[in-house]
Amino acid sequence: MAPAGQVVKDFTLARINLIPGAHAIVKRLRQGVSLQLARDPNDRHDPNAIMVIVTMPPAKKIKIGYLPLGLAKELAPLMDAGLNIIARKAPNPLEGVCQVAYIPPAQPAPPPATETAPAAEPITPVELKVPAGTPVTVELPDEAAAPEQPPLRDQRRSFRPYNPKDDADD
Known about the structure:
The chain has a six-stranded antiparallel beta sheet. A hairpin with a 3-residue loop joins strand 3 and strand 4. The protein contains two helices and six strands. The two termini are 31 Å apart. The chain has helices at residues 22-28, 69-80; strands at 7-12, 34-39, 50-56, 60-66, 86-89, 97-102. The chain is of the alpha+beta class and 170 residues long. The longest helix is centred in the middle third of the chain and has 12 residues, at 69-80.
């Protein structure tokens, strides 16, 4: 059972194409094989680079790839601070899928607020009483106020292409 608060993330090895022979080694990796992570702050492509290394018999260490940019950016400061991060070949049959696991450092509790905001007054619902048989009218917006749109699937209809940055949580 995993320790409380442990974070486990799957990732696919990055920059594997740049390392000669890495594909052959990754194909032979069995599920659960331990991997080593090593910071590479002098990497010219990414100052947060983290190498993924496998130990082959007899005690030969071989670089097989890097962590993806986003994950490396997240884990590099933790590794620099001395946090122990473990890595292994994920229990996934796909080549190059690995896992990292770590327990994040405890965040300090936020300081207590000195000023308290006044409590908002509760909103009381209002019940409308209309005598039975009284007609009720609802006003809809004027159709002329709505902009004219071409029919669906018409090329003249305004279109905004999908942008994955719109879905980002950052």
